[in-house]
Amino acid sequence: MTRRGEDVRAVIRRATRLDDVVSRARELSAQTMIFDVEPLVSYWDDGQAALGRGIARVLRDVAPLTALRVVCFATNSARRPAVVPGGAGVDVVYLASAGKPLRTAAYRRFPRPGIVIGDQVATDGILARRLGYAFILFDPRPGGVPLGPRLLGAGGRLVRPLLFTRPD
What is the pTM of this model? Predict the structure, then answer.
């Protein structure tokens, strides 16, 4: 609930590498991190093995975060890893066909504060707002983004000023 006249837009942060994301999570003492699978964990056209390696890499890199309790990997696609590895002292959740940003029930039990990390304001950013989490906009490598996500990104740029204060 907000007070009259209060700016309800959240701050959007930017990251270009996973270590940027880890630094932001440390600053915020995040207990939950929700990662959009594509493109930070694994690219859209990568296979099963690359998805598994990406999940393992993320879990390895976030392991030093002492406040972290939940790492969630969420994608609107149906792709799934062969195995979801566990994290030492951290619950690891993988959500395929997640329905971001419309479906939020699966995230409601996660501890706060939390961060959503993704490349799309129109899905990941809105999910972060709906959950009351911080949002880290991940800028993927230029030229490696398929047409669908590029179009969604263009739409997100239009609504960004309505949802978030200026990025840092």
Answer: 0.80
